[in-house]
Amino acid sequence: MHEQEQENQLRKSRRLATGLLVLMAVLFVAARIAQPRYPWLDFVIAFAEAAMVGALADWFAVTALFRSPLGLPIPHTAIIPRNKDRIGDSLSNFLEHNFITQEIIREELRNIDFAGAAAGWLAQPENSRAVARQAVRSVPSLLAVIEDDDVRSFIQHRVSRTLENTQLAPALADILGVLVASGHHRALFDHIIVLCGRALEHNKSYIRWKIHESSPRWMPKALDEKLYERILEALQSTLDEMRDEDSEWRMRFQNVSNDFLHKLRTSEEYEAKLDAILGEVLGHPLVRNYVVDVWHDVKDRLVADAAAPDSHMAAKLEEAVRALGSDLLHDANVQRKLNQWIRIFATETIVGRREVIADLVARVIRKWDADTMSRKLELHVGKDLQYIRINGTLVGGLVGLVLHVVSLALA
To answer: N or C: which end of the chain has fewer CB within 10 A?
Structure first.
């Protein structure tokens, strides 16, 4: 509720309570004056007199909460302004131990379907489109933050420092070891044999020419041709032998692979060679300039696409977001798990920081001056407190009337 509206309501209820007090005073005076002529006005006098006492007592009590009545320094008045910090600490402690608890937070979150609500919202085309467009609009700003010099510095320094602290040879050995254990090296060996067979088949004429070119002039051509056929036959026979699963060539290749992996894991020489090669490659100006050129091209393309009305990024992202929402909407099991995770995370987060939250309340109240806090509280509860004054006036009058009747009965 707006403070101005609270102010108006407080003013109206205060006028009503004060007006009732004035009415009781007028009634008391009028009854006193007319009582000699009308003895029955004793009952009215008793009612009005007790009502004024009740009204004044409740006025004093209500006023003493927020300020000193009539500005007099009466003890135990202006209770809220004088105890502002203590009230803040008490409110903070009450909030921490009675509201921000595991049981209450968990119970409040139990019936909230976070995942379902989010999925249903994202599954709507207009919402997924809005999310995608908003995300794509932020791309140019994000890219503008990343300076080209930063990219170059990253390439020159960050990667180099990372490589300095990383043992490349053992890491490479682990990767190759997985491939060898999976038998991929045998497929590589077969592929090498196929490539060699193709090379031999496509270069037969060249091999014949080289043999004839290298032979002495006096050697007969028939003998050259015979030598060519023998060499070709030997090469083809060797390739056929290498294709055999149990061939010695395969065993040698396996031993060479194992020996290479062992040296990668244990040899400092291999580590040094790899570091030198990578350092030389990454430090070469051509590599650095190439990477920066690629970065420029990628950045320009992303910025242009983000600004285009028919942005491919936005379309793909919209499709992905909508598909995510639709899939999640129809998967109750995933929704249940997500909701459970969100509830646990939210509960642990809120309860884990309840001291901070409660302390925030206390710190804010401490920062308020006494008049501000008193004014805020009075605006919130002052209307109800004025009705206490009204009730005190009426109840006091009725009690006075009853006591007057009782006194007459006992006389």
So the answer is: C
89-137 confidence digits (pLDDT tens): 888 888 888 888 888 888 888 888 888 899 899 889 899 889 888 888 8
pLDDT one-digit tens code per residue, 188-221: 778 888 888 888 888 878 777 777 777 766 667 7
- HEC per residue, the chain: CCHHHHHHHHHHHHHHHHHHHHHHHHHHHHHHHHCCCCCCHHHHHHHHHHHHHHHHHHHHHHHHHHCCHHHCCCCCCCHHHHCHHHHHHHHHHHHHHHCCCHHHHHHHHHCCCHHHHHHHHHHCHHHHHHHHHHHHHHHHHHHHHCCHHHHHHHHHHHHHHHHHCCCHHHHHHHHHHHHHHCCHHHHHHHHHHHHHHHHHHHCHHHHHHHHHHHCCCCCCHHHHHHHHHHHHHHHHHHHHHHHCCCCHHHHHHHHHHHHHHHHHHHCHHHHHHHHHHHHHHHHCHHHHHHHHHHHHHHHHHHHHHHHCCCCHHHHHHHHHHHHHHHHHHCCHHHHHHHHHHHHHHHHHHHHHCHHHHHHHHHHHHHHCCHHHHHHHHHHHHHHHHHHHHHHHHHHHHHHHHHHHHHHHHHC
Please indicate, yes or no, if residue 406 is contained in any of the structural domains: yes
Domain assignment of residue 90, yes or no: no
Domain ranges, residue 392: 3-82+368-410
The total of structural domains in the chain comes to 1
